[in-house]
Design goal:
Length: 342
Amino acid sequence: MVASSSDVRHVLHASALDDTVWHTVLDAAVEYKTHDTRTDAAAGKTIGLLFFNPSLRTRTSMEVAAAHLGADSTTLTPGEGTWNLAWTDGAVMDGDAAEHVREAIGVLSRYHDALGVRVFASGTDYKADKRDDLIHRVADAATVPVINLESAWAHPCQAVSDASLLTERFDGDTAGRDVVLSWTYHPKALPMAVPNSTVKMAARCGMNVTVARPDSHALDDDVMDAAQSLADPHGAEVTATDDLDVAVEDADVVYAKSWGGPMVYEHPEREEEIRTQSRDWRITEERMDRTDDGAFLHCLPVRRNVVVDDAVMDGPHAAHLDQAGYRLHAQKALLDYVWSLD
């Protein structure tokens, strides 16, 4: 369904996909979902999946996606049954790491036709995380396509899945819809990959995006600027506010997500203090009732009655399970792309 002339097509950031590829992948995901398509188009191919961090949806949906296309998959958790890896060039490997990422990825590239890798943010080196150093090191060492299964700065699989869901929900007419990306309280300072990808995804779909968050947890300025650039061709706006109740008024979508923000890198104790004092940043039934019959989304996992109330999760606004279901179809579409399947 998706074709490209490129020899090696990495999917590291969804925003890096050109418009033709972006729309073709979304169309393919919707088609896979609509028809529950299973083929043998990828028979004989394999994908190697490396999870340096936990996963439920991403791991399972990618394994099943490969199977639905006739491909096989191998899943590895480095450090659990495989060697710990060293990442830096010039590393003197006299510690726990028994293998360098260059050898590990180089070898796996010779066994597999694509690699999927999840490697989260360090939470300590903001510049390196913003550059997405680790996932780029994987791509540099690979000789086959690499799909980012969530890195320090981006989650393209989630972005493609969410855009596909919204495309179906609004019958292809996403432009001009109002989306609220809402920061919510969480007992941990979580990474920014999902909110970074979500704000740009919604903007690229032509939606007006309001990022509701305490001032202390503003997204990176470059992320917001990039999102506005994606919104500009559609005449849409990307804005921010510290008033969640105003933000949700008449919204079409409320997307809840927790993140630590840039402050956690330099002032983690202050970030924790502010976050702990912000428990009222929670998605409630009352807030959802102020929307325009809005859909509640969350990438999952989610902490009930901390991030969002049971009444929302189990009520008429909830769309998070359909959202998670779309991960399977979106990842089949991404495999189409990296493997040039017809």
